[in-house]
Specification:
- The complex is a heterodimer.
- Chain A has a domain of 209 residues: 3-Layer(aba) Sandwich (Peroxisomal Thiolase, Chain A, domain 1), CATH 3.40.47.
- Helices cover 39% and strands 15% of the residues of chain A.
- Chain A has 16 helices and 12 strands.
- Chain A is globular.
- Chain A starts with a helix and ends with a strand.
- By secondary structure, chain B is of the alpha/beta class.
- Chain B has an 8-stranded mixed beta sheet, with helices on both faces.
- Chain B is built from 30 helices and 21 strands.
- Helices cover 52% and strands 12% of the residues of chain B.
- The chains are: A alpha+beta, B alpha/beta.
- At the A-B interface, helix 8, helix 13 and helix 14 of A face helix 8 of B.
- Chain A: One of its GO terms (molecular function) is acetyl-CoA C-myristoyltransferase activity.
- Chain A: Keywords: Acetylation, Acyltransferase, Endoplasmic reticulum, Fatty acid metabolism, Lipid metabolism, Membrane, Mitochondrion, Mitochondrion inner membrane, Mitochondrion outer membrane, Signal, Transferase, Transit peptide.
- Chain A: It comes from Cyprinus carpio (Common carp).
- Chain A: This is Trifunctional enzyme subunit beta, mitochondrial.
- Chain A: InterPro entries: Thiolase, Thiolase-like, Thiolase_acyl_enz_int_AS, Thiolase_AS, Thiolase_C, Thiolase_CS, Thiolase_N.
């Protein structure tokens, strides 16, 4: 990892903070008087339409004969906080513990009823490399419940959930807890490779002379640390840089990106104020207050957004701190069961977890196009069309990335040239799309986002009375995921 | 031709008659017309200059335009026209932004640096440079005057004297471009098309910014830059630089290349005597250089190279998707390396694990060195390495489309290999043999399918040497040839296709020269003296060093084989000298000793006293009439040239162009002479024949001119090149 990369990441992190700070002051100003800027922009993005308008479906249900129905019983998450805020002194397993305990409280699940725990994480704390097990023990789960950790960048908790689905479908488990945690307030910063080598040799050095000569070999340069970067290992390109290039490739303007970011924040604010974000649990942070709200939601004005300088491609890029998801701490957890077991235990499930796909493509030029590839594939698998879907929840890594995906999905040329498909799948209608905000505004703790998306789909289906929901997300490494979720009959 | 967007005139360059944009007379006239119109349009506040061609901004001046000139004055006036246009561009009342994607070379770069602002894409295809020196010319449209001011004296010398390509990130650091733009991936259009559009959008924004004074051209100078500027401001320092550069050029070029010296003169005049004098010197020197034989020779090589980078045998029936290389030695591993790095799956087979491990390491090192130079990422390296399958058996040979054998140069071993391989390969698979001297038909004698057998003679080190000599027998099918050429082109080679015979073309020309070199050594010319005589003639590597590089054992082998095939004509030095050296372990660089001793540390090469002792025991008396320095030089060169002409006469060589390319790119024949055939043309066949007759009197038939050479000597209107 080069120094300049580290610098970019640090600067970006700082610019996130400073942007957020300047935006927060403006929110206050706005609250006192002028809200018209926000209202105007909201009109552009239509609000959800009443459920009576939903069309008849291609399929009545996705249940298949001879295949077990797998249900989402419930899902919770800790408030998502900007890194370096209230969670700053915790460790990742503390956050994970909070989510797991929250799930137990919410569902009243007997601790020994859980057969297995699968948890996702991206930036690993080396002390708790199997964070699933550490968090489960700390959350008071039975020590007889095995737990393992999965990682797949931003779709890690999707992977945790589909692993759970697999375990249940294969008849190995009946009740599995899945989730994910990300803790960006503290990341492992390592000594340089040369320093590590010297230190490891030091352990083996037998004589004082040998130790002294090893110590003597240490040079000032060896002391410079290695920081993790949100960069592709294979291409060394930071994700923000790739997102900027992607936006440019699809001709997404700065204005479009800022508008979408504002939409996300505006809708998130509305959802938060309207009490829609019921998956959020309260968390008493040791030594601090009780946290019960996400703290990254900051609707601003277009003028304020327009003032920000590009964060990655300078000076002519379009991706800024405000139209990117910010570094976030947070954890999520869901309870997944076979339908029979859930019913036997007296639960009223929220949704069926149906077909899902993972896709992957070129990690350089198509790093963030996962949703474009995954959506038509999972629809095909389910026998549904885009019109059948009532609720879309896409992971918003960057406003530019979302807009690029929407344009790609609308393009026959792209479908034919790069996806080997005859026609485009079409872009989701905006009135069904991320209507309670998204990763841009709610925050994006990498490995916790997947569960948030699935739980939100379940809640939105219940609230809006729709039948089918679609989750889609991109992830580092040029990978992607999509899942179809069916509402549980109310 | 141009479009106005938001008060920015976008000029899109596109020569419809060619794959690249060149600054032809026509293009220049058009450009002047367009610029005048733009300057006359009050609504236009700034200009963007961009090419519509995906891989090319402007590739340079039109060489044919320069070649068509009959006199130096004509070329000088061409240069002055160019200077005048770019002067207007430089003094433009509104800012002009050059938006560069693809090659921006020679006149193209001179155009770009006359503009007020430069933005380049970071595409792999984007290169900037002044390659004129490689054609024996100089940047004749203000380049020698503007570049030193822009990038500083040392960097300007480096660019113009080496002609090297500069990548975008380096160009930004040097101050050659102001901004870089990332190439884009797939979007709603092809990446290439969209990248150009994006570059244009960014350039238009900057043009607006420049017009509105929101963007400034001046870059803040760092401390290092300030110090450098200060130091360069001191006349004695500059004087010292001119002197150092001059002596360095003299040392490297032996004074055989006029262009670098003229470039120094132009830069010096411009800086010391001012613009007017500088521009005048530039245009005059440009005219003079264009009339030199060196420039003609280098331009001839350039054209030849272009010809030899085409497949003249049509499209092969099948693409080679899987190649197998037999023998993981220096050659085999080199061939594998240049194949996998173009994305073709390759099997590298050897008979021993040690041999295989060595070959595998060679390929890895070759690629890893590129990651150190940052021309390859470690991931790309790993991806390329994954295409290589090192193995000891014939597994998967049933899927090979071509096998290239690079095993030991011994006919019986080659026969064994042919039979083994033919038992496992599919019917369509081509069998190519990498031999430097064994006739292909003799190797093909063991084959059941001689139409699929062909010679592919690579040069060592394979990843550096550009030439590939392809040898066809009268049984080789046209499709086999087409396929071999296609593979060679894919490997990035310059290709000559020659007929079969002992030593084919290249080895056959080299052998008599080496025989003559051995004779000179026996006559008491030391290896160092021999080297300085050959490099003084323009060979990049001296004859004694060359023998060490090729390997004394290989030289002995070839000398003996070809001696048997061609008789006394290939005599001269005693083959026993070489054999004795091999016996003593003096096999050249690879064994640490040859004519010289190769130590790990000392830079100064020491003559191997063991080899000197051997030479003494084979001492010959030098005939004084033909032993002056110049005589020795011409003895070496005339044998080379005569053999080359004989190859053409016998039909081994299809044409003089391939003869020149083969000699220069494969054997290091002096590039300033343009190859043996151009040398005969420029030196005069009659004069060469006269010299040879004199040598013939002293030594006999080794110097008997061949019939074709005699024909040319008799009739001065006969020339190899028009």
């Amino acid at each position: 990892m080069s120094l300049s990369l580290i610098r970019t990441v640090l600067l970006t992190a700082f610019s996130f903070c400073s942007a957020a700070r300047s935006l927060s002051t403006s929110v206050h100003l706005q609250a006192q008087g002028n809200v018209s800027g926000v209202m105007l922009t909201c009109e552009k993005w239509k609000m959800p339409i009443p459920f009576s308008q939903y069309n008849s479906k291609s399929k009545k249900t996705l249940a298949k004969p001879g295949v077990k129905n797998i249900v989402l019983v419930d899902g919770v998450r800790t408030p998502f906080l900007q890194s370096g805020t209230t969670y700053a002194d915790l460790m990742p397993h503390d956050l994970a513990r909070a989510a797991l305990q929250g799930l137990l409280n919410r569902t009243g699940l007997p601790k020994d009823a859980v057969d297995y725990i699968v948890y996702g994480t991206v930036i690993q704390e080396v002390k708790t490399s199997n964070v699933a097990r550490e968090a489960a023990l700390g959350a008071g789960f039975s020590d007889k419940t095995p737990a393992h950790t999965v990682t797949m960048a931003c779709i890690s908790s999707n992977q945790a959930m589909t692993t759970a689905v697999g375990l249940i479908a294969a008849g190995q488990c009946d009740a599995v807890v899945a989730g994910g945690v990300e803790f960006m307030s503290d990341v492992p910063i390592r000594h340089s490779r040369k320093m590590r080598k010297t230190m490891l040799s030091l352990n083996k050095a037998k004589t004082l002379g040998a130790r002294l000569s090893l110590l003597g070999s240490i040079r000032l340069a060896h002391l410079s640390p290695e920081l993790p970067a949100v960069a592709e290992f294979s291409t060394a390109e930071t994700m923000g840089h790739s997102a900027d290039r992607l936006a440019a490739a699809f001709g997404v303007s700065r204005l479009e990106q800022d508008e979408f970011a504002l939409r996300s924040h505006t809708l998130a604010k509305k959802a938060q104020d309207g009490g829609m974000l019921s998956d959020v649990i309260s968390f008493k942070v040791p030594g601090r207050d009780i946290v019960s709200k996400d703290n990254g939601i900051r609707p601003a004005t277009m003028e304020q957004l327009a003032k920000l300088k590009p964060a990655f491609i300078k000076p002519h890029g379009t991706v800024t701190a405000a139209n990117s998801s910010f570094l976030t701490d947070g954890a999520s957890a869901v309870l997944i069961m076979s339908e029979e077991k859930a019913l036997a235990m007296g639960y009223k499930p929220k949704a069926y977890l149906r077909d899902f796909v993972y896709v992957s493509q070129d990690p350089k030029d198509q790093l963030l196009l996962g949703p474009t590839y995954a959506t038509p594939k999972v629809l095909e698998k389910s026998g549904l069309t885009l019109n059948d879907i009532d609720v879309f929840e896409f992971h918003e890594a960057f406003a530019g990335q979302i807009m690029a995906n929407l344009k790609a999905m609308e393009s026959d040329w792209f479908a034919q040239t790069y996806m080997g498909r005859k026609t485009k799948v079409g872009a989701p209608p905006m009135e069904k799309f991320n209507t309670w905000g998204g990763s841009l505004s709610l925050g994006h703790p990498f490995a916790a986002t997947g569960c948030r998306l699935v739980t939100t789909v379940a809640h939105r289906l219940q609230k809006e009375g729709g039948q089918y929901g679609l989750v889609a997300a991109c992830a580092a490494g040029g990978q992607g995921h999509a899942m179809v979720i069916e509402a549980y009959p109310q | 031709i141009y479009e106005v967007k938001d008060n920015v005139a976008v000029v899109r360059i596109n020569d419809p008659t060619s794959k690249v944009n060149t600054l032809s007379r026509h293009m220049q006239a058009e450009m002047v017309e367009v610029m005048n119109e733009i300057w006359g349009n009050a609504a236009v506040k700034s200009v963007v200059l961009i090419s519509r061609k995906p891989g090319c901004f402007i590739a340079g001046a039109d060489i044919n335009m320069i070649q068509a000139c009959k006199t130096a004055e004509e070329v000088t006036s061409l240069s002055q026209e160019g200077q005048k246009i770019f002067d207007q561009v430089e003094k433009s009342p509104i800012p002009i932004v050059a938006a560069i994607n693809g090659s921006c070379l020679g006149g193209g770069l001179e155009f770009a640096i006359a503009c007020q602002y430069r933005i380049a894409t970071k595409s792999k295809k984007t290169i900037l440079g002044t390659p004129e020196v490689m054609l024996g010319l100089l940047p004749g449209a203000g380049g020698t005057q503007r570049l030193p001011k822009m990038v500083g004296l040392p960097a300007a010398f480096d660019m113009m004297l080496t002609g090297k390509n500069i990548r975008p990130d380096k160009a930004k650091k040097m101050g050659l471009v102001h901004q870089l733009v990332d190439p884009l991936g797939p979007g709603l259009k092809s990446p290439e098309e969209r990248t150009i559009e994006y570059l244009e959008e960014v350039a238009v924004d900057f043009a607006k910014g420049l017009a509105g004074k929101k963007v400034t051209v001046e870059k803040k100078k760092g401390l290092v830059q300030k110090i450098q500027d200060f130091v360069m401001g001191l006349p004695p320092v500059r004087k010292q630089i001119y002197k150092t550069v001059h002596s360095k050029v003299m040392k490297q070029s032996k004074g055989l290349y006029p262009a670098p010296l003229k470039i120094i003169e132009c830069i010096q005049t411009g800086i010391e005597k001012g613009n007017a004098a500088g521009y005048l010197t530039e245009s005059q020197n440009f005219g003079k250089l264009a009339m030199t034989s060196e420039s003609r020779a280098l331009i001839g090589l350039y054209h030849g190279q272009v010809t030899c980078k085409k497949n003249h045998f049509g499209k092969p029936e099948r693409d080679v998707k899987k190649l197998a290389v037999l023998g993981a030695g220096l050659m085999g591993a080199g061939i594998a390396q240049v194949t996998i790095d173009k994305g073709v799956a390759t099997i590298l087979k050897d008979t021993t694990e040690e041999g295989l491990a060595r070959g595998h390491q060679q390929v890895y090192k070759g690629l890893n060195d590129k990651t150190k130079k940052k021309s390859l990422t470690t991931f790309e390296r790993d991806g390329i390495m994954s295409l290589l399958s090192g193995q000891l058996d014939y597994r998967d040979f049933e899927n090979a489309d071509m096998v290239i054998e690079a095993v030991f140069e011994d006919l019986s071993i080659k026969h064994k290999v042919v039979k083994e391989v033919e038992a496992v390969i599919p019917p369509h698979c081509i069998f190519a043999t990498n031999t430097s001297a064994l006739p292909i038909k003799d190797i093909a004698a063991a084959s059941k399918r001689p139409e699929k057998v062909i010679g592919m003679h690579y040069f060592s080190p394979v990843d550096k040497m550009q030439l590939l000599e392809i040898i066809t027998t009268n049984k080789t099918s046209k499709d086999t040839t087409a396929s071999a050429v296609a593979v060679g082109l894919k490997q990035g080679k310059v290709i000559i296709v020659v007929g079969d015979g002992p030593g084919f073309y290249t080895t056959r020309c080299l052998a008599p020269m080496l025989a003559e070199a051995v004779r000179a050594l026996q006559e008491g010319v030391g290896p160092k003296k021999l080297d300085s005589l050959t490099t003084g003639f323009g060979f990049p590597v001296g004859a004694a060093t060359l023998a060490d590089e090729v390997g004394i054992d290989v030289a002995a082998h070839v000398a003996e084989d070809l001696g048997k095939a061609f008789g006394t004509r290939f005599g001269g030095g005693n083959v026993e000298v070489l054999k004795m050296m091999v016996q003593k372990g003096f096999k050249g660089r690879k064994s640490g000793k040859g004519c010289y001793v190769y130590g790990a540390k000392s830079k100064e090469k020491k003559v191997n006293s063991g080899a000197e002792d051997i030479l003494k025991s084979f001492k010959l008396t030098a005939p004084p009439a033909v032993s002056a320095d110049e005589d020795i030089q011409y003895r070496l060169v005339s044998r080379f040239v005569n053999e080359a002409v004989l190859c053409l006469q016998e039909g081994i060589l299809p044409d003089p162009v391939q003869g020149d390319i083969g000699a220069v790119f494969g054997l290091g024949f002096p590039p300033c002479l343009g190859g043996p055939f151009r040398f005969v043309d420029s030196h005069g066949a009659d004069k060469l024949v006269q010299k040879m007759k004199r040598f013939e009197e002293a030594y006999g038939n080794q110097f008997t001119p061949c019939q074709l050479l005699l024909d040319h000597a008799k009739d001065s209107s006969k020339r190899f090149h028009k």
